[in-house]
Design goal:
Length: about 140
């Protein structure tokens, strides 16, 4: 009989401790700390990626084609980030129409095909980076 009384009192002690934790907001505090930790890690990842991109752009010599591709990628990122996934045709938004006007019909077709291939590859890169929350 005495053993049962001790077990009940121990159980009551555990229950009162749990109730005290709930009253004092312990679990809410733990949840907030975890969310803050996750956000800090995400911010550091973005900072590291931005720093790596900065080093690539500033230190490494780039050809004009690479610079053009980087500028195109930045424009694409801005379009896709601001549109929240509601982009119908990013190619038309990025297309250099001034350059198209100077080309003949066959050259224009080839240019559009190559340009759309570039944009398609950049969209794939964007989706990978977004999956890993780099962008």
């Amino acid at each position: 009989m005495e053993k049962q009384v001790k077990e009940k009192s121990q159980f009551k002690k555990f229950a009162s401790d749990a109730k005290a934790r709930l009253k004092n907001g312990y679990w809410q505090r733990v949840k907030n700390e975890r969310m803050q930790y996750i956000n800090n890690i995400e911010d550091q990842t973005k900072v590291n990626t931005c720093f790596a991109d900065h080093l690539r752009r500033e230190i490494m010599p780039q050809t004009s084609e690479q610079q053009e591709l980087n500028m195109l990628y930045q424009k694409l990122c801005n379009i896709l980030n601001n549109a929240n996934g509601n982009v119908i045709n990013p190619i038309s938004a990025l297309m250099p129409y001034e350059q198209l006007e100077t080309l003949s019909d066959t050259q224009r077709e080839l240019f559009v095909i190559k340009f759309s291939e570039k944009v398609r590859n950049l969209v794939k890169q964007y989706e990978k980076e977004k999956e890993y929350k780099i962008v």
